[in-house]
Fold Peptide/nickel transport system ATP-binding protein.
Amino acid sequence: MKPLLSLKDVSIVYPGERADVRAVRNVSLDVAPGETLGLVGESGSGKSSLAAAMLGLLPAGARIEGSVHFEDREMTALAEPELRRLRGSAIATIAQDPFTALNPVLRIGSQMVAFQHWHKELTRAERWKRATEMLEKVGLSDPETRMRQFPHQLSGGSRQRVAIGAALLAEPRLLIADEPTTALDATTEAQILAIMREAKAELTGSTIFITHDISVVSRVCDRVAVLYAGELLETGPVAEVLSNPQHPYTKALLECDPARISEPTRTLPTIPGTVPRPNEPRSGCTFSPRCPAAFGPCTTERPALAACGESWKSACHLVTV
Ligand code: SF4
Ligand code: MG
């Protein structure tokens, strides 16, 4: 099946004071129609830069190398008006802070109606009805009342439900959710993840779910891509990668995941060492200074992504020895 979105050898470079900063390095990734891909990484992994590149929203001055192909378009070659048109219809986003999606001075209802502006065939009353039904689908009680409220009258969780509903009303072919549950408490997060999971049935398109929390991936995603310091280290089907990670970094992320630690511990394990700064010189495997499994070639040869299963790849010398 032809991928909906295809990233080939993508690098993202920001101009720096002394030298350019390479935030993403040679990432190649496909997203198949209908699938949910989890993009996992700590802060500084380049996941938000990649999302911005997919949306054509990189800040002025940032340079993108490689190719971002969406359906039949090369995103890196599109002019701003066309990108804006795409972002209003074919590609929708859910942000970490739902306030960014909602206008504080407009009632929820008029915003939900406005989000359907390209449905020229629908009357305002029909759009209002669709919006009300959508609010019900995303789990808001008393949607008729919500439609008449302002964003500040809703809790953070309810606002995020509205933002998800708004994104779904657009019937996007690609939905990009950037840490949509990070600002929420655990109970609300679980509810929002359940809604995202149900939304998959509603949505005919694909979803990219960006998170720093690998446990979230197992709850909503079909495939996962693990980023580290701007590089793609492992990608494959969620069930396989999470139960039997091939890359030591993926393993370490899972070992630090509070959801997987059965015994209550006073301090959570963390990965020793720090993520290299984007401009720090690299030799060999970028994870080698922190890797407990490092051996012979690790500090001198950069491992390429190698197949370790069906549509499963890991950039680690252990896979090829
Ligand atoms: Fe560790 Fe070597 Fe694999 Fe890098 S290539 S993750 S240093 S074992
Ligand atoms: Mg981010």
Notes: The mean pLDDT is 90. Residues 96-171 form one domain.
